[in-house]
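quick one, 251 residues, struct below
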Amino acid sequence: MKKLFLLIEFIFSFCFSYSNEFTFKHVDVFNNLPNSRTLSIIKDKQGFMWLGTVSGLVRYDGYRLKVYLHDSNDSLSLPNNYIKKIMEDQYGNLWIKAGNYGYILYDSHTEQFVEDPYKLFSKLELNRKPDEVYIDTHYNIWIYSANHGLFLVPKDSSSFSSQLITKEALPKGQISDIKEYKEDILLVYNDGTIAYIDTKHLKIKMVLSEISNEVNDIAHFSAYVDNEGDIWIHGASRLWHIKLLIINGNA
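---
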């Protein structure tokens, strides 16, 4: 039987040394960004770089920038210039979290924004906009609603059918980030709690409350999982390093 051990560290400072040499190139065109504060960046299937700034969405094709901004006279423009998150689905469409508006879709084929993507969510019987959307590396879509719970919309689900982990089965609180961990999912709460979701059986495998017990405060916590499977949690002006050790042996 597998046993899980948790190693968690609070990181005060870093000192990295590498023998490898790196080449850095300054791209002058980025001096023309609508704002230097960038919250999200991805590279899409076509090779475009997308940057979400606090003052607009930017596409870079390797030569020039194209800036997308809200236009009150254009219903197909961005609903809000504060771009918090950008993700790409299996069809090459971008799911963009824009300020307090929530999520909007960018159709990569028509190069237009879909003003109301929530028609897609109507089959989930949501009575409000989803709080968080996450697309994993297999292009499954995870949709969190504080009123309902966590929905899984599998890849290639033409009918947008879903499976649900009810809100009663989840830890109490508000989820501020969702990340993939190996083949499973991590739910990061705004008090630092982390719920480890077994995606095969759609149930909670474990709940980590060490950070929430230490901080005892509400903040925006976000997660990053590196190539070695280590988990990095940032929030409340701190950074934590989590290593889950799985040891095979008898219970």
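Confidence is low (pLDDT under 50) at residues 12-17, 247-251.
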